[in-house]
Amino acid sequence: MKAEALFWQQCSQAVMADGSVDAQRLMELVIATYRVHESDYDEIERSAETLLRENHALRGNMSALSQAFDGQQRLFEIILNNLPLGLSVFDADQRLTLSNIRFGQLFGLTQGDVTPGVTIDDLIDKMRGAEGTSARPGRRGGRHSSAAANSSSIRRREWLMDDGRIIQSMVTILADGSNIAIHADITEDREAAERITYLAHHDPLTGLPNRIHFRQQVDAALAARKPDEQIALVHLNLDRFKSINNMMGVSAGDKILQQVAERIRASAGSENTLARLGSDEFAILQTGKQQPWNVTALAEQIRRELSDLFLHGEKQLELSVSMGIAVAPGDGAETDILLKHAGVALSHAKADGRKRERFFAGEMEAQMQLRHALEADLRAAVEKEEFELHYQPLYDLSQRRICGFEALIRWNHPIRGRVAPMDFIPLAEEVGLIVEIGRWVLRQACNDAAQWPDGIKVAVNVSAIQFSNSDLTEDVSEALAAAAVSPSRLELEITESVLMENLSEVLPILHALKERGIRISMDDFGTGYSSLSYLSSFPFDKIKIDKSFVNDIADNKEAHAIMHAIILLGDALGMRVTVEGVETAAQLALLESEECDEIQGYHISPPRPAFDVPHLLSLPTNGGETYLPRC
Questions:
Q1: Which stretches within 84-210 are classed as H helix?
Q2: Cβ of 147: how many Cβ atoms within 10 Å?
Q3: How big is the CA angle at 443 (ends 440 and 445), to the nearest 5 degrees?
Q4: What percentage of the chain reaches a pLDDT higher than 90?
Q5: Taking the C-alpha atoms of 209, 213, 214 and 219 in order, what is their torsion angle to the nearest 10 degrees?
Q6: Termini Cα distance of the chain
Q7: Residue 386 in contact with residue 414, Cβ under 8 Å?
Q8: Which residues sit opposite 608 in a β-bridge?
Q9: Residue 344, Cβ neighbours under 10 Å: how many?
Q10: Is residue 202 a contact partner of residue 213, using CB atoms and an 8 Å limit?
């Protein structure tokens, strides 16, 4: 009730009967009313004070929130402008609403260019570059269609800048037509990807296409071949290049390969496709030419180019090449077949003595099939141990007696009959079976030698592959221990090809074997071009002169002089000398006069089975089934 109305009510209550106002009564009513509402006034005052306090606190909170908002705004700006990626936001009308500093930097835009409200078309006009053709198509401005307005989508755009950089934009288009985009400099990533792609299809040493790329090019050439067109494929292999790596080092070998690639490239010309297939293997694809005349001319040109000496520092090197050639469609209309047939022809070129080219012929494949059949039989022979050892005597000329035997393997096939070592040993080395065969030979030779007198030694040939693909030292130790034969009775014969394969790997093994008391001989001495250098690399116990030096020593002065020099060389180096292939009394007499240490050959005895060894040892020095020189 309002105060005025309440007062008039109180006045009416204080009127007496005569119509006058009882002042005392009115005062009492006013005081009573005041007392009734006094507590309400206190509560109001307290509420007012509370409101004042809360208002003050609210003002403080509002100030704190305002400061926090300002801090968040500053933090947002710091993050936005320090992102490594560019950021831009455009509204549905394709006008800029937000961007960071990196956005302008990436596209070469000034701060004035990127003011809010500018259209994307205006920005594109000011960019220092243009959109790349590889970018996925997208709208530059305007609203999106209703079909696209129902959901967001992501589009990629690429920009090629004037300074060579590549900028990629990933644009998220929202349902209302606005978009948010992030922008990145992908120049280094793109270059790395292109480098990876290049390396996946090219040889990093020579820059030539690799095997994968070459196959693709052959596929394309065969697919595009006209009915009357012939396509030639040349498979090239450098002869004995591995020995250059071993003698001069891989780095020097790589430099030589680069020179080889340049010479072949010059010979092949830009109209032919040249590739490097592997370590020392190359291939050439020749299209649009009359064959086989043009590919023959190409092969001759390559041979001439590679016949000139190669230079590495002050060293001069001579290289040769073998080539296999297959011509489509006659030798195959598919890439795999054409490559296979060129490889078959190459194998025949190398088997025929290297330094030549061979065209594929149908019978070559038949010969390869026979070879595969022989390989299968050889694997079975290893499992069934179809081998036996024959022994050829080593005759000591000074003591005039047999001083040992060389173990020579024989393969008795149940259907093929006796297979010559020259027919299966190279195959065994090529397919890796020589390790198992060589291990068996060592065991069997030691077991047989254990039945002989203590003074009789046994010589075993060791392949280069046994040094690289097995623990030869362990194999020798196990064979000696199992047979209880003294190491001094075992002689290991190696050819210089063993040293050529990997000199640094072989020498420690040879020294370990020699320290055990095993004798080491260099077999076929003089047949290689670096035998003398290998004699200085390891203290051999013996050198065995190849029989090719013996054939003419009785009638040819030059051959006699060479033999004389080798025997003197062995004597000067403290190495015993064994001459192989002695077949006549005249040869024997001449070697006796030269004071040769040992001889070996059919004049003494052909190789005999193990059970004949006791008989050979029991023969008198004169007469008997086997001729032995006089005492």
A1: 101-107, 120-126, 187-201
A2: 7
A3: 100
A4: 50
A5: -150
A6: 161
A7: yes
A8: 391
A9: 22
A10: yes
| Phi, psi at 119, each rounded to 5° | -85, 160
Residue with tokens 């059919």: 602
The length of the chain is 631
Range with the largest mean pLDDT of 42-46, 147-151, 255-259: 255-259
**Structure-token match 């290289």, residue found:** 319
| Cα distance between residue 493 and residue 392, in whole Å | 14
Cα gap 421→413, rounded to integer Å:
12
Query: For the segment 251-267, what is each residue's pLDDT rounded down to a tens digit?
Result: 888 999 999 999 999 99
Please report the pLDDT score of residue 41 as a whole number.
63
Q: Write down the pTM of the prediction.
A: 0.58
Residues 6+ apart with CB under 8 A from 593: none
Name the phi and psi angles at 433, rounded to 5. Answer: -75, -15
- Banded model confidence at residue 212, pLDDT cuts 50, 70, 90: very high
Which residue in 302, 311, 317 sits closest to 263, CA to CA?
Answer: 302
DSSP 8-state assignment for residue 580: E
Give dist(CA 265, CA 261) in Å, integer. 6
Cα distance between residue 598 and residue 396, in whole Å: 5
Cα 428 vs. chain centroid, distance in angstroms?
A: 26
Average pLDDT over residues 383-412: 94
